[in-house]
Amino acid sequence: MYTRLLLCTIIFLLSSCNRNEDDTQTNTPFKVAINAMGKDFQIETSNLNISQTLSSVESPNTATVTIEQSDLLYDSVNAIKDIFVLSFDNSKWVIQGRRTLYRCHHDRGSHQFSSALCK
What we know:
Layout: H1 2-26, H2 29-36, E1 47-54, E2 62-70, E3 77-89, E4 92-104
Antiparallel strand pairs: 1-2, 2-3, 3-4
């Protein structure tokens, strides 16, 4: 009986530790934005630039995460920039908005980042 109680206690403690660690690791603006990119993100290797800007260093309540993929192997698109605006609600980061911009190859559209699709 004591063995069973000890085993149940150990399993409970281990599962609680693991859950808290997972919550802490995924509850950052950067991780939320990366997860929102989907399972196909970076299937093909490209240059990658990621930046995160917080409303304040101590107790931030908003964040902007920018993920730029450049030198892509597409016919028309040279780079894609995803900009995420997040807020800290109920102890977790939530995406409030996402904007995707494109930079095109020569003769395929805008050479500056734009919401217009490349030709």
